[in-house]
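Researcher: I'm preparing a figure for a lab meeting and need a structural model of a single chain. I don't have an experimental structure, so a prediction will have to do for now. The sequence is pasted below. Please return the structure as tokens so I can convert it later.
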Amino acid sequence: MAMTGYTVAREALDAWNSAHPTPDPLEAAKSARIPELSAACNAAIVAGCDVTLSTTTGHISLTDEDQINLTTAVGAVNQGAEGYPYHLDGQLCAIYPAADILAMGAAATAHKLYHTTYANHLFAWVRRCDTLEDVAAITYGSALPDDLAANMTAILEAASNA
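Model: Understood. Here is the structure written out token by token.
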């Protein structure tokens, strides 16, 4: 039997549809939410944190460049430098004593660890959602479900004791 144009077109359409199934709306929502949460996490990290130093308090931003500069400062102190030049946001660069450089490094590390751990737990929460509404309700800053909150607390406590 000869194939008609309709039959050939229908077979081609069926083959294409088989190779390109309709995306699951829930999976699409999950896939879209995770990069949004990741961007919010990055913004929170870059915004930086407050620090309490030996003679003052202030704020440090944590752009990639700031993180590199602070890592360099901490490295110099760990190799024996008694002080190192750094700056609090909006302040002139100053030579900070080693203890203050280490305090800045510790504050930055804790800040970044908190946000990356929190984001990781948000991602796990998104992946286990069963409805579009549940996915949409998860935003950066949402309180974690009890099991995820307990896990995050355990991780942060273990890291602070390391």
